[in-house]
Amino acid sequence: MRILARYLLDVTVEVDGAEHLLRAKEVPCVLVANHQSLLDTIWLAWVLPRNAVVVANKFISRIPVLGWFMRLGGNLFVKQGDRQSIKALFEDSLRYLEFERTSIVMFPEGKRNPSETGALLEFKKGAFYLAYCTHAPIIPVAVQCTYPLYSWADCRFRRGCVIRVRVLAPISTESLTEEDIPALIADTRNDIQKACISLSLAEARTKLF
């Protein structure tokens, strides 16, 4: 994935807070990130622990190059709205976390959100319920609003750009109860949203100076 970003797309990824990923080397974690485009998995390759897999929409597995790389990496795919596929994903995720000691990366918005402002969609419960069931720490990850850099709808892409990613402090789920999950979802979404805004402001300052 890094090869795709650096040599094919001519993009550099800057990561802030990489020290928080050390937790994922100690125990399997659930990483949750905002989701703007198909290219998110490429930027997150700079962030992901080597023993991590991404949960993605099943149709991505059929996309040339990107889908090939993701299948080779053992990533997980789910067919949205298909109960059997969702059940299988949950079981596979449990196996990765509990028995294969592999971290899971999920996009709790549930779908791509190419917002021009970077505003996040509401988060879904799945990633947080998975962390609750396995007591896996949650690591929030924020990717800056990429609309100024590229847009599928407008058929534009700015080569040579910098994508900024921020890794936030891990959240323990050891004492988490099922009743705590809604508040955890809201707090995590709020933290990622604030980080996204901060990263976008940093991009704007870079243009000024």
Brief synopsis:
By secondary structure, the chain is α/β, with parallel strands linked by helices.
How do the strands and helices of this protein lay out in sequence?
Blueprint: H1 2-8, E1 12-16, H2 22-26, E2 30-33, H3 40-44, E3 52-57, H4 66-72, E4 76-78, H5 83-98, E5 103-106, H6 126-134, E6 138-143, E7 150-151, E8 156-157, E9 162-167, H7 181-208
Instruction: Estimate the strand proportion.
Output: 15-25%
Helical content band: 25-40%
End-to-end gap: 31 Å
Main sheet characteristics: 7 strands, mixed
Rg, rounded, reads 16 Å
The secondary structure category is: alpha/beta
**In sequence order, what are the helices and strands, one letter per element?**
HEHEHEHEHEHEEEEH
Mean pLDDT: 84
User: What overall geometry do the principal axes of the alpha carbons give?
Assistant: globular
Which parts are unreliable, with pLDDT below 50 for 5 consecutive residues or more? none
* Count of runs of 4 or more consecutive helical residues: 7
Number of strands: 9
